[in-house]
Write a structure and sequence with these properties.
The protein is mainly beta. The protein contains one helix and eleven strands; from the N terminus they run βββαββββββββ. The protein has one helix spanning 29-32; strands at 3-7, 10-12, 18-25, 34-39, 46-53, 56-60, 68-72, 78-83, 92-98, 101-102, 106-110. The strands form two sheets. Strands 2, 4, 5, 6, 9, 10 and 11 form a seven-stranded mixed sheet that branches. A four-stranded antiparallel sheet has the order 1-3-8-7, with no helix packed on it. A hairpin with a 2-residue loop joins strand 5 (46-53) and strand 6. The radius of gyration is 13 Å and the shape is globular.
């Protein structure tokens, strides 16, 4: 059974940056890739980023393009979402997903 466990998030000041982690058990991301989503208060969940490594592709939503990237550890078992220049509009619960499996979500609040 595949499990995705997220860490990171919390309170970030406007203009700051964050790194969210998503660790997989029972899978490596190399073959299946990862997608990131977020859900802001009162809004529907939105896709923000995706990356796969074999073959290599990465895609970013307009809302985060240019200030977002996805990386992974050498083992391919943990992926990281890097997001910079945060604004209050980035406040949301962030989720990672791979195939049909989802992380538990992690809250990011951007506020001074």
């Amino acid at each position: 059974q595949v499990q995705l466990v997220q860490t990171g998030g919390g309170l970030v000041q406007p203009g700051g940056s964050l790194i969210l982690s998503c660790a997989a058990s029972g899978r490596t991301f190399d073959n299946y890739g990862v997608r990131w989503y977020r859900q802001a208060p009162g809004k529907e969940r939105e896709w923000i980023a995706a990356r796969r490594w074999d073959p290599h592709d990465e895609f970013y939503a307009e809302a985060v393009k240019g200030r977002c990237s996805i990386s992974r550890n050498d083992a391919g078992s943990t992926v990281y979402l890097h997001l910079m220049n945060l604004t209050p509009e980035d406040t949301a619960v962030y989720y990672c997903a791979s195939e049909d499996d989802w992380g538990q979500g992690t809250q990011v609040t951007v506020s001074s």
